[in-house]
Amino acid sequence: DAPQVTVSVPNGGEVWDIGSSYDITWTATDNIDVTSIDILLSHDGGATFTDTIATGETNDGVYTWTVDAEATTQARVKVIAYDGSGNSGEDESDADFEIYDPVAGLSGVEIPTGVVIAAIKPNPVMEHATVRFGIPVDGDVEITLYDVSGRLVATLAEGRYSAGYHSVGLSPAGQVPSGIYFVNLRLGRESTTRKIVISR
């Protein structure tokens, strides 16, 4: 039988910065054994997959990719699994995700006038989401997750960031109960908050 493959991340809506590292995750099963994994990248919504991210990977369900592709709003990932009998199966992202160039954001094209949480996708969050945020000047940033009672649940990012837009991951699955939460972005005395729903 051909391997059965499901791509879980990225699966549409994520924003991944060039030069940053993110986990591509999948599941691949077979009636005998999956012997290797290839990962390809599309820049045109899945019409073609012209870039090779990795070949001959073990089927451990995760590959950490330091993004080195060109910027696009129509990126998709395809995972191809091979078994010992020469059969192959594949799956790709269900929808487009964005590969963002933070250097271009520093050119003055995309620098916000204040602190902003530009997007949290997907929302509701089931397994993994990407928080895209922007700051107007270089500075020390803290991004935290709170529950409805105001209790700190997790720190998503803490450190110095340059002016422009950036992205951090949010992976609540198995860590917190389903419900309403708030993502808070703080830069010095400025802060902003955005509501999310975690559903598992």
SSE map:
Layout: E1 4-9, E2 15-17, E3 21-29, E4 34-42, E5 51-57, E6 62-66, E7 72-83, E8 88-92, E9 97-100, H1 102-109, E10 116-121, E11 129-135, E12 139-147, E13 152-161, E14 164-170, E15 179-187, E16 190-198
Parallel strand pairs: 2-9
Antiparallel strand pairs: 1-3, 3-6, 4-5, 4-7, 7-8, 7-9, 10-11, 11-14, 12-13, 12-15, 15-16
- Shape field: globular
Biggest sheet layout: 6 strands, mixed
N-to-C span: 31 Å
Beta-strand portion reads over 45%
Please give the number of β-strands: 16
What ranges have pLDDT less than 50 throughout 5 or more consecutive residues?
none
The number of helices is 1
Folded structure, characterized:
By secondary structure, this protein is mostly beta strands. It contains 1 helix and 16 strands. Strands 2, 4, 5, 7, 8 and 9 form a 6-stranded mixed beta sheet that branches. It has a 4-stranded antiparallel beta sheet with strand order 13-12-15-16, with no helix packed on it. A 3-stranded antiparallel beta sheet has the order 1-3-6, with no helix packed on it. Strand 15 (179-187) and strand 16 (190-198) form a beta hairpin. The radius of gyration is 18 Å and the shape is globular. The relative contact order is 0.18.
